[in-house]
Design brief:
The complex is a heterodimer. Chain A has two domains: about 110 residues, no CATH class; about 130 residues, Outer Surface Protein A, domain 3, CATH 3.90.930. Chain A has ten helices and five strands; from the N terminus they run ααααααββαββαααβ. Chain A is elongated and about 80 Å long. Chain B starts with 7 loop residues before the first strand and ends with a helix. Chain B is α/β, with parallel strands linked by helices. In chain B, about 50% of the residues are buried. In chain B, helix 1 crosses helix 2 and helix 4 crosses helix 5. Chain B contains nine helices and twelve strands. Classes of the chains: A alpha+beta, B alpha/beta.
Chain lengths: ~260, ~280
């Protein structure tokens, strides 16, 4: 008798399109070829995952048209089957796939637009956390500021591109001059929705470093390198005012450096 | 937990805002927990809706019949949602979805053998122990059956309920779809189910397709409930009495009032079939 493990391995190969025949003998035909019955499951797998990708990457679908998107999705699904049952978590590597997908070679900005869509999707499904109050740092001694490590919104993400991907994403790409330069984006939940905004370089460098868990001292060094006139007090006020900070701690005092 | 008295609807993303803005007068809302496992505004909305009425969690990702075993991380995420939402019902499927770590994104058919029964019973035990709750197990829609199956599907479900104490989610559309595809009678299937184990009914639409010149029904949840499914639902009501009933609609999602209209039809069927039972 066919062991359940062997049946599932064979069915897995069939659904993934690797093997249409080895399970056929185990299936009741009854007027329909076992292979045709198996194909129903394979078809559903491909269609449903293509729909899942389309839901996460609507701008890519619009930019390349639906038929080409279906082809790209088909190739992606073949190379990267899902490993988890939450479909909003499927497709993280689609941008990297598009970047190296030969038919997309002429659309240099496409992978970055996909990265933006993935980031929007990830923000949408990130846990919500209440922000700290505007006076949250009042009990922190000025001398301890360099050691501050922030916990920022779980939905927060930063993305830098040499292309104006926010304008391409928004659907008026005919009017976008690809030579107009790139953008640095902040993407986050705000209330019930996900929003994004352009940041200038020092703000972007500071916030991205803080999100990565760097101490304030090291994040500020990056911001100052981008702009020697960087205003730290204003930057901290904005971080709290924009409700980006949900917690903070002090890193161990292993250096005597101060601002 | 809250007792459920009447018909509910499957809540899908595109309807969420409308439902939050004006919670409809339905018995309960059912969602796929997998869509809420990250968190974010949708989960916040669901928590607010939970205060208005009961929620049912209808999982699609546990792969209860999978020889890979139950993924611990997925079960923990489900347990976290159960704790947050205190659902009135929790259900999963008589199927498998994962092999060698690949999620095949479907509710794939099992052979009904002693080996599969032992595996399912162990996995259902494990899940119920972790959740400290009974779960309901739903009969699948099938497009094939295996030659080496030795147990009829309803007997297999009855054995699972007896061995694990799980309840059964009796999907009327799935019985109709599988019955037509595999050649069994829906009413005979109902007659073989243990009435006391049935905790919920599902109703949904299906499509009719041609494969190799033969008709195959596909359980696509993309249309109104079909007439023969309503008839089988009424037969189930007469046999088992009323149970929480859910209208599932996932593809080609209609405007919310259309979905609510289906739940009104189910309410009418419950009223007619159970009052005629009382009169008889």
């Amino acid at each position: 008798m066919l062991a359940l493990r062997d049946l599932q391995l064979a069915m897995g190969r069939s659904v993934l399109g690797h093997d249409e025949t080895s399970l056929a003998d185990a299936i009741v035909g009854d007027g329909i070829a076992p292979e045709s019955r198996l194909r129903i499951y394979r078809h559903h797998y491909e269609i449903s995952l293509t729909e899942a990708l389309k839901a996460i990457y609507p701008a890519i679908c619009r930019l390349v048209d639906e038929r080409f998107f279906g082809y790209a999705a088909h190739e992606y699904i073949k190379a990267h089957p899902p490993r988890r049952p939450c479909l909003h978590e499927y497709g993280e590597s689609f941008a990297d796939f598009l970047a190296s997908f030969p038919p997309c070679r002429t659309l240099a900005y496409l992978a970055d637009v996909a990265r933006m869509e993935w980031r929007i999707n990830a923000s949408l499904h990130a846990p919500s956390e209440p922000p700290l109050a505007a006076d949250a740092f009042r009990d922190v001694a000025i001398g301890d500021y360099p050691r501050l490590v922030f916990r920022l919104l779980p939905s927060l993400g930063y993305l830098e591109s040499p292309w104006p991907i926010d304008r391409i994403w928004s659907g008026r790409e005919e009017a976008v001059d690809l030579g107009e330069g790139g953008c640095r984006l902040e993407i986050r939940q705000r209330g019930e929705e996900v929003v994004f905004a352009r940041l200038d370089k020092p703000q972007f460098v500071l916030r991205r470093a803080l999100l990565a868990g760097e101490r304030l001292e090291s994040a500020v060094a990056g911001a100052l390198a981008a702009d020697p006139h960087f205003d730290l007090a204003m930057a901290l006020k904005r971080l709290l005012g924009e409700e980006l900070v949900t917690g903070f701690s002090l890193a161990p005092d292993d250096s005597q450096t101060s601002f | 937990m809250t007792a459920i008295s009447s018909t509910g609807i499957g809540l899908r993303g595109p309807h969420l805002a409308a439902v939050v803005a004006a919670p409809p007068a339905v018995g309960f809302l059912e969602v796929h927990p997998e869509n809420y496992m990250g968190g974010g505004p949708a989960l916040g909305a669901l928590e607010r809706l939970r205060r208005e009425g009961p929620i049912s969690l209808h999982g699609v990702g546990l792969s209860l019949g999978g020889t890979d075993g139950i993924a611990a991380a997925h079960l923990e995420r489900l347990a976290g949602l159960v704790e947050r939402l205190e659902p009135a019902l929790i259900s999963e499927h008589l199927s498998w979805s994962i092999v060698e770590g690949v999620y095949l994104n479907d509710l794939l058919p099992l052979p009904y053998t002693e080996e599969a029964l032992d595996l399912l019973a162990a996995h259902i035990d494990h899940v119920q122990t972790r959740l400290r709750r009974q779960i309901l197990v739903e009969n699948p829609s099938s497009y094939l059956s295996y030659r080496h199956s030795t147990i009829e599907e309803p007997a297999f479900l009855a054995a699972l309920a007896a061995r694990t104490g799980c309840g059964l989610l009796c999907d009327i559309n799935n019985i109709h779809v599988s019955g037509r595809n595999l050649g069994f009678d829906g009413e005979a299937y109902l007659a073989a189910l243990p009435a006391e184990a049935i905790g919920e009914f599902h109703l949904a639409g299906h499509s009719i397709n041609d494969v190799d010149g033969q008709e195959i029904l596909i359980d696509d949840h993309g249309s109104e409930v079909a007439a023969p499914v309503w008839a089988l639902y009424r037969a189930a009501l007469r046999r088992f009495g009323p149970r929480p009933t859910l209208i599932e609609w996932d593809n080609r999602l209609p405007a919310l009032p259309v979905l609510l209209g289906e739940s009104v039809k189910a309410d009418a069927a419950i009223g007619e079939e159970t009052s005629s039972a009382r009169a008889a």
